[in-house]
Amino acid sequence: MSKKVLIVGGVAGGASAAARLRRLDEEAEIIIFERGEHISYANCGLPYYVSGVINDREALLVSKPEAMRSRFLIDVRIHSEVTRIFPEEKAIEVQESSGKVYRESYDILILAPGAAPLRPPIPGIDDIEALVVRNVTDIDLIKRYLDEQQPQTAAVVGGGFIGLEMAENLHARGIDTTIIEMSNQVMAPLDFEMAAILHEHMFNKGLNLILEDGVKSFAKKEKGILITLQSGEEIQADITILAIGVKPEIKLAKEAGLTIGDLGGIKVNERLQTSDPNIYAVGDAIEVKNIVTGQAALLPLAGPANKQGRIVADIIAGRNSEYKGTQGTAIAKVFDLAAAATGANEKMLLKLGIPHAVSFTHSNSHASYYPGSTRLSIKLLFDPTDGRVLGAQAVGAQGVDKRIDDIAGVIRHQGTVYDLQELELAYAPPFSSAKDPVNMAGYVAENIINGDVRMIQWQELSKITKEVFIVDVRDEEERRAKFIPGSLHIPINDLRSRLSELPQDKEIVVYCEIGLRGYLAYRILIQHGFTKVRNLSGGWVTYYPAVFG
Prior knowledge:
Enzyme class: oxidoreductase
Largest sheet: 5 strands, parallel
Family: Belongs to the class-III pyridine nucleotide-disulfide oxidoreductase family.
Domain Rhodanese: 464-549
Keywords: FAD, Flavoprotein, Oxidoreductase
Oligomer: single chain
InterPro entries: FAD-bd_OxRdtase (IPR050260), FAD/NAD-bd_sf (IPR036188), FAD/NAD-binding_dom (IPR023753), FAD/NAD-linked_Rdtase_dimer_sf (IPR016156), Pyr_nucl-diS_OxRdtase_dimer (IPR004099), Rhodanese-like_dom (IPR001763), Rhodanese-like_dom_sf (IPR036873)
Number of domains: 4
């Protein structure tokens, strides 16, 4: 007997489940309900349509309702909002845009409602046109406004992925753009010192970035919008984009009596079943298990949503499958840089009290002697005893995506820093180095675990600069640019002949540009009887933007 499967939401998870289920079961009756006009659209590509990087609007529409109907024999009902679920009756209530209301029964129900943009109750927010970026209709409205009104200034409230991408694309149109972020950094999956690299880059690109300041009120003026910040600063903008974050769409599930998790998402098991075994849920609306910490998490990402849709379809079709969890692998383009993260960041590990060690490496994206090589910065977080990789972040102009993906694969399989060393990665001068940046991150982490070097992190040193003896082992030219105040300059090649200038009874911190010469200096000093030595992790390249940026 064929199953009747209803799917609420037709974007990533919902569309993926429908297409996969049809491939496995030709007889199933599959109906998708979508309250909007579009299904299966490229929501991650929406900001790039604003600037014209993506100039074909149709390219954003991955699959259209008529295509789903003709190719997969799936009944797609757009402009149809599911307003209630009746679990006991195994039925839903649907309201069409025309106002018509009807019920539809089901054998299996899949919830894929996604997440909605946050719209906090800030005074004046209802008096202005504060635009959001969730679907094609939203981006059409923004694009039309930009084309017709030709605004000169824009304010983006929120410095997450969507906020940064919108700010970049508004800036690309020649609009004077301000990002307002309440936190001390953009892009929350990164730790502060990695985000600081982005801060410096955005300032250099002419973007106005306001950190640690939130919106107090909005006011509509004759020309544009007046935004008053908590600090009292005022920002004038012709257009305002809200990109503060998203919250799971749980209204249907909650009213149906389904269990909601502590974080506010729909609670599901490893088979993605809700508390009602006939109702599954996928995508941004659910709580997932973080595979690194084991804790529940809200991780609204397209990749996991599509995988979840596929797994649910497998289960409905009678296959043995389960969702093992999410690690939050994500990447964003920020002008000329890319910033990516996977696994746990240090903020999360500190909050949960999970023991960890940290290394920073700043390698070349490919062989330094081949033209076009640029710096690629990696922060690696790992267990200080067994070397298990807990998380990583990478920022750079080239090669960030493949390096974070390499590390993500190791994390997924509970690998260690030794696995990073042993990865046999493709090498040719235009693409990498014989010692790939991922291998180098593993080598540095091993040195820390083995005790071949003791590290000091930038935030530790910034608090105790007067209590330690700091030695700058860079070259004279590097020293002339900028240096840590109070440090003694001894180039690495002169260190052995100038050991008498260093105190035996005081803690010594050595630093260089990226940490490598600091490591060499550490090994020299330790083997010459100096016992209180530490190397500044990541060197000046990590320290400077974090402390002075």
